[in-house]
Amino acid sequence: MPDTGEPMDSRAALDAARLATAERFARDVLPSVSRTFALSIRVLPGALGRAVLAAYLLCRIADTLEDEPNLPAEAKALLLDELALCFEDSSAANGFPSLVENLTGEAAHVRLAHNTDLVFVLYRSLPVGTQIHVRRWVGEMIAGMRKFVLLYPHGIRIQSLEEYREYCYYVAGTVGYLLTDLWHEHAPSIGDSQYKVLREKCRAFAEALQTVNILKDVATDAEHENSIYIPEDLLRLHGSSHATILAPERLLGTREALATLVQLAWHDLEGARSYLLLIPRRAVPIRLFCVLPLLFAYATLRDLTRTPTALARRDVVKISRREVKSLTLIGFLVILSNRGLGWLADRAMRRPFVVAGVR
Prior knowledge:
Layout: H1 6-33, H2 35-42, H3 46-67, H4 73-85, H5 90-99, H6 107-114, H7 116-124, H8 128-151, H9 161-186, H10 192-216, H11 218-224, H12 232-237, H13 251-278, H14 284-306, H15 321-333, H16 338-350
Helix pairs in contact: 1-2, 1-3, 1-6, 1-7, 2-14, 3-6, 3-7, 3-8, 3-9, 4-5, 4-8, 5-7, 8-9, 9-10, 10-13, 10-14, 13-14, 14-15, 14-16
């Protein structure tokens, strides 16, 4: 009896419906876990956009497990192992939400973790070569997070600048390599020679953004996340320590230690600028994707260096909504001009950039 094809058609319809559900969920949850990258990811077309969307959400799930406040280190490590297994085993991905039912972190991040199965549905819809890149680099991130969770079971306490760079590699540098591999695969204008040069700069691009985020969240991380990323060696050199990082009588020493990381961030931001300007002008969506987080990082680091009392007040330094809109508008207008982008980055470094009429 010939096969009617109906079961296969029915299965295909179910798979298509689940993929549509997965993509709707991914695009719906993205703004609640990152406003900056929600805007950037939207400009990437087709399979590239889906790849970066899926990869970013998988990174956020790993980060949610690392930051979970009410799990012991061994339990976090086991969940990270299970998350890594999901790349190889679709049944593990389907069952993963049942393992994270009791997470207690931020609501949006918990919701994302509860729908890990849908994110893996989106991941498995990607071209095979793209899946390989995502699995390699997100897997590397997960392994690094696992290492640091077990190394500091009572809350991360980075000890040295070398260890700080290692941590930043795992949680951010890996993303730089992942994105650059995806650019090479999906953008015809990024050939082998451009790819080789971009790969030399991609770690600085990603780690600069990470250092700026760490610097603006020092007090929040210490008080609410039980994590201190400022190296103990640096703090002790200036008369402070992890134990006294927020103590009023030690704030001067803490700020002096932070100044070393500020200089590191400025240095890496210059590498990040070089990375952006090396992306071919024909790869407009990729340039648009990279320009916004870079401009926001320049502006945020500018404000961090000009508000020395923010740490004492437990403030989180954020640039204004008007400046975000202005940098977005002008960044998009000058995206094809390396000179224009360089001017805009320099301008954001010096003082707030607000276009008249923007609200």
